[in-house]
Amino acid sequence: MRQAAKQIFLPSLALLLAVSLTFLGAGAAVTGTMPPWRDSVGDVNHTEKITGTYLVEQSAGQEDTLLLFGSSELRTAEISTHPANFFAGKRAGFQVDLIGRGSCQSLIHALQIAASGDSLRGKRVVLITSPQSYVEGGIAPDLFMANFSVQGYLELLADDSLSDEVKVYLSRRVAELMEEYKALPDAAPVDPAIAALAEHTAEPALLSGIGNAILSPYYVARRWLYELKDKASVRDILAAGEDFSVPGKLPAIDWAAEEEAAITEGKAMSGNNDFWMLDDYYTTYIGSRLERQRDRDADLSYSQSKEYDDLRMLFAVCREKGIQPLFIHVPLHGPWSDYTGFGADRRAEYYQNVRGIAAEYGVQTLDLTGHEYEEYFMCDTMHLGWKGWLAVDKALIEYYYGG
What is the per-residue pLDDT across 265-286, written as a single tens digit (0 to 9) for each? Predict the structure, then answer.
């Protein structure tokens, strides 16, 4: 029996060592030839910033970069006051890094920041969440899976600096949304090992613990392979980038002139409607269907939503990472909300819910909700526009320089 065990164990050990050495060699080769971070990468909200961890880690390592975690509002780059345009060429002495895309809600950013190791510890970080995220169910399972990073999830579970409370909450939400996603008729396959890991972390049990122990080598290998894949996927992005030099003397910003220019541009880009919305957006999504939109949101409510607890977790993760973020509290489009029947009283309730959570965690907040009726503040039914982004730009400068 002992001899048989040796015959099985020794070759297996040799194979494991050989595979490990091969992996280590490949990893060293990839890491050693990675292009450096380039400033221009920050101007684009590359998907790889969400699906992996490398780009965010590299960005966080720059002394003159401000990381901005957002959602679909980041795509409005046709507006000149959008941060990627306004801060072009490090106009204010720093580079912005846009992180996020549509449906990157509080939970996605909580997972991502939790997965950042020490790279974001003590850094200046800006957070934006969208009002439309606060429907009763919170983030939809298909939208969650579209932005969920298995690599990031494995990274955060391996971070001993994160509390059990954070890991349990995040794992419970991951397990819950994976289960809901699997029930959808057109769902893609979900890795059962990752689903099992999330379920075990959320609610440890003897049987799941045994399974978790058996699968531990798999999780280690997957984490390593995801890291390699992440680096390989961003190599061309970094190689094609360019750096910008900070102007020798930073030009003074005439905010009154900037606002005047923003209004002029807003008028020119929203001439086909009375809601100050981008012409193309209005034509595509409203246009001839305007009358059908009247009172469509009469029953809409943001009173109860899982998004509120996800927002709490986002702030809790920032606290554990030593991050004192700037949170942008975005308004709804007042006239449009009135037209669709989402009344001012329900909007005010939502605004106060979010304010209360930010205050609970002592988070510095740029509260823009008082601007919901201001012309050209929004560029469509839900996203910041010409004057809205300008207000954010001014706040980013104050925040970056310690205001």
Answer: 999 999 999 999 999 999 999 9
**Sheet of strand 125-129: strand arrangement:** 95-99, 65-69, 125-129, 326-329, 364-367
DSSP assignment, residue 381? S
Contacts of the segment 205-214: beta carbons below 8 A, 24+ positions apart: none
Amino acid occupying residue 319: R
pLDDT digits (tens, 9 = 90+) for 307-347: 999 999 999 999 999 999 999 999 999 999 999 999 999 99
Record the tokens describing residue 57, joined without a space: 């880690």
C-alpha–C-alpha distance, residues 127 and 98, integer Å = 11
Residue 174 corresponds to which tokens in the numbers above? 């991951």
Sequence spans of domains, the chain: 39-147+243-400
Name the DSSP class of 86: H
DSSP 321-347: TT---EEEEPPP-HHHHHHHT--HHHH
- Distance between CA atoms of residues 292 and 28, nearest Å: 59
Please work out, in degrees rounded to the nearest 5, the angle formed at the alpha carbon of residue 393 by the alpha carbons of 246 and 53.
75
Domain 39-147+243-400 coded CATH 3.40.50.1110: yes
- DSSP letter at 70 equals -
Supply the pLDDT for residue 7: 44
Q: Are 68 and 61 in contact (CB under 8 A)?
A: no
| Residue 98 backbone class (left: φ over 0; alpha: ψ -120 to 50; beta: rest) | beta
pTM above 0.85?
yes
CA distances from 197 to 68, 193, 293, 327 (A): 30, 6, 44, 32
